[in-house]
Amino acid sequence: MIQKTVGSSIKSSTSCLSSLLLVRRNSHSRIRGYESNGQVVEKKKQHDGLFLQKSKGQHLLTNTRILDAIVRSSDVRPTDTVLEIGPGTGNLTMKLLEAAHHVVAVELDKRMVEILRTRVSDHGFQHKLTIIQKDVLKTDFPEFDLVVANIPYNISSPLVAKLVYGSNTFRTATLLLQKEFSRRLLANPGDSDFNRLAVNVKLLADVKFVMDVSKREFVPPPKVDSSVVMITPKEVKPDVNVREWLAFTRTCFGKKNKTLGSMFRQKKKVVELLSLSKVGITTNASDVVEEGDNRVLCLDTDASMFKERVIGVLKSNGFEDKRPSKLSHGELLRLLSLFNQAGIFFHSLPMDLHDY
Q1: Is 91 marked within a binding site?
Q2: Annotation-wise, does 195 bind a ligand?
Q3: CB 5 within 8 A of CB 87
Q4: Which residues contact 133 (CB under 8 A, 6 or more apart)?
Q5: Cα 89 from Cα 52, distance rounded (Å)
Q6: DSSP assigned state of 96
Q7: Residue 107 known to bind ligand
């Protein structure tokens, strides 16, 4: 079974090693548990039951058919090391251990870790499992071949960014995501859902839809349905400064349906780009000072001239009336290159995972 969160800490330290229960209250004050074959059964409520917190994104997948389908779609090979994020109590982990050479599971909740260790040991797979009990966003991953993960909404973007833009190389990442988030990830130029997330991820990877999963398949059920997608890193990646690209798309997709001409005529945006182009890391143009006589730059004059340069790039290359949401990766990369050649830059201070 998959835990729906890995990035936030769990306050409760209640243990349930004896019963290995997956808990969900119902109108009859009973609790759902699991058997070794993955079938869900009803058990009476016990004081030491493992209570799952919706507020923490803890939703465990219980449907054996769907778990099997995820493993099949992941194309796990007998020689693979699989990175599993949020293993929970281990239903998916057990299936991955049967198919793979080794599984590295990242899990923050120590209650889940204890249950997982016991369950794996009972099946004789302990030599094939490594558990990392840390926050997945703050953890350096060991080497792995592919990823299987069930990601809570609140860390979906930074975790996808960590996988796609991180230093680890891998074959594929099969991710169970909130349905709305997966649709945004799958969107293409011209789609109403096309967004900065999709344009950044698809710069370096291809994204494929696998299947939808009903909210009824989770314990406890979340409010919305989920979808499985597969992310495959591209073999050939574009030659672009990643920080510059990410800052550029943040600027363009802040108002993705406005024309570029309208967007870059805004005084605030012009002054911001002027400061970045003058000093590289200054974020406030009023801080820019001329060398020598320490005279503050005349922002009105400089901004006016700089705006002409920006609009000139757009006009002369046919981008003035185009909208970011309609542009392909090739067009966006070309525009960024044209801006940089004209001395117009977008990135300043280092970004963290939430800026992707």
Answers
A1: no
A2: no
A3: no
A4: 107, 108, 110, 113
A5: 11
A6: H
A7: yes
Compute the distance between CA of residue 241 and CA of residue 249 in angstroms, rounded to an integer: 12
Name the token pair of 25: 């209250």
Q: Has 101 been labeled as part of a binding site?
A: no
CA separation, residue 258 to residues 42, 44, 147, 192, 262 (Å): 55, 58, 37, 13, 7
Tokens of 350: 């280092």
**Number of residues in the chain:** 356
Which amino acid makes up residue 339?
Answer: F
Please give the structure tokens belonging to residue 161: 């960014």
Burial class (CB in 10 A: 0-12, 13-18, 19+), 52: buried
Which has the closest alpha carbon to 210: 224, 231, 225? 231
Q: Is 61 annotated as a binding residue?
A: yes
- Give the pair of three-digit tokens for residue 271: 């002054």
| pLDDT averages per 10-residue partition of the chain, 356 residues | 43 38 35 40 38 71 95 97 94 96 95 94 97 95 95 87 96 97 95 94 98 94 94 95 94 93 92 75 39 46 87 97 96 97 81 59
Buried b (16+ CB within 10 A) or exposed e, 251-274: bbbebbeebbeebbeeeebbbbbb
Q: For residues 150 and 2, give the distance between their C-alpha atoms in angstroms, rounded to a whole number.
A: 6
Picking from 203, 195, 270, 303, the residue whose alpha carbon sits closest to that of residue 243 is 203
CB of 313 within 8 A of CB of 280? no
Was 86 annotated as part of a binding site? yes
